[in-house]
Write a structure and sequence with these properties.
- With about 140 residues, the chain is mainly alpha-helical.
- The chain is about 75% helix and about 0% strand.
- Helix 1 crosses helix 5.
- It is built from 8 helices and no strands.
- The protein has one domain.
């Protein structure tokens, strides 16, 4: 639980990146590769302001996730990324007026419950608690 702030930062930057990418693609309109060099079109997409900002934010999210993975178990950290879906669904409802019907709300509730259960499984199992160094073991056996 010690690294929960970093995990939540990863989740929120991931969600923010998705929202920026969506805004960028909406601002570009329907994509067509007819009569255009696909490489040129791809570069136009990548370097459009919202898409580029979304990709940069996604890189920050991945860097944060790598830091988290260096500190906690993958089976603890990775499920938290499902909270990005929750954040995206809620923000997409308010920002893009996307549908948030009963089925989606039920799914979001299941994701939240599952994430709480996973978070509870990590209590007291931080890297420092879970792994004793040989010095600590040696000092305990000497006593």
């Amino acid at each position: 639980m010690k690294y929960i702030v970093f995990i939540l930062f990863t989740v929120m930057t991931n969600a923010a990146a998705q929202l920026m990418l969506k805004q960028g693609m909406m601002s570009l309109g329907p994509i067509s590769f007819e009569g255009v060099n696909p490489l040129i079109k791809l570069l136009q997409i990548v370097f459009s302001p919202w898409v580029f900002l979304g990709l940069c934010t996604f890189v920050i999210s991945m860097a944060s996730h790598l830091y988290v993975l260096s500190k906690v178990e993958l089976s603890f950290a990775y499920p938290f990324l499902s909270l990005a879906y929750v954040a995206v669904a809620i923000f997409a409802y308010f920002v893009f007026r996307e549908d948030l019907n009963g089925w989606r709300i039920a799914g979001i509730a299941c994701i939240c419950v599952g994430t709480v259960l996973i978070a509870q499984s990590g209590r007291g199992h931080d890297e420092e608690t879970a792994s004793l160094s040989s010095d600590k073991i040696h000092s305990e056996t000497v006593r």
